Amino acid sequence: MNAIDLDRADRGLEDDLRAVGLPPARTLSQLVLRTDVAGMPLEWIDYKEAARLYTQDQVAYTCGSSLFQLYGGVNARTGRRTVLDVNSIIATVGHAGNPGNTRIDYVPPLNNQTLFRRDGYLCMYCALRFPARELSRDHIRPFSQGGKDIWMNVVTACRRCNNQKASRTPEQAKMQLIAVPFTPTYAEYIFLKGRRVLADQMEYLLAHFPRSSPLHDRIQRWFQ
Ligand SMILES: [Zn+2]
What we know:
Mean pLDDT: 87
Number of helices: 8
Strand content: 15-25%
Bound molecules: zinc ion
Oligomer: single chain
Shape: elongated
Distance between the termini: 19 Å
Low-confidence stretches: 15-22
């Protein structure tokens, strides 16, 4: 199955992002997308957490494809070994443990990795694409002029543009933003935090993004 490998994208290795398939053995490092019972994306979990949810009957239903089979102990009554078939997307009952999917005013924490991914690794001034290590966080309205460190006031900038802009607003520096910043929704944030997002997980998350999300377009363009 194809995947979007965000860890590779961070490093600027975007050549064959869509071509990386899971090895036949289905590596256990692949994360599972957990949703609530209504299907709202909640978080990425590893195979151990997925196994715990399956064995504790917390899995309401599954979506996506079968990722791997986990073998448990032998059932004393039946003499059979328990086998868990773990899917790429699992809907779970019980507490979410994360309020993000229910609160309309939820604001995800800001960090450079998710910021650069939000902006598709493009410098929002010169429109060129860079690996994460060559990017920086620009405060549109600088701190020195009362600007805040929030999603709506930050964009991805290459070092050169950031230096050129210095402690000025874009207007003062006569520089133009190629796109307006936005605060990711919870579903968008789950995607931005992903490591290796399988095609079916991607499709699922995209369906939960706002229709107007710039990410629809940016995700397409990352891989061209
Ligand atoms: Zn630039």
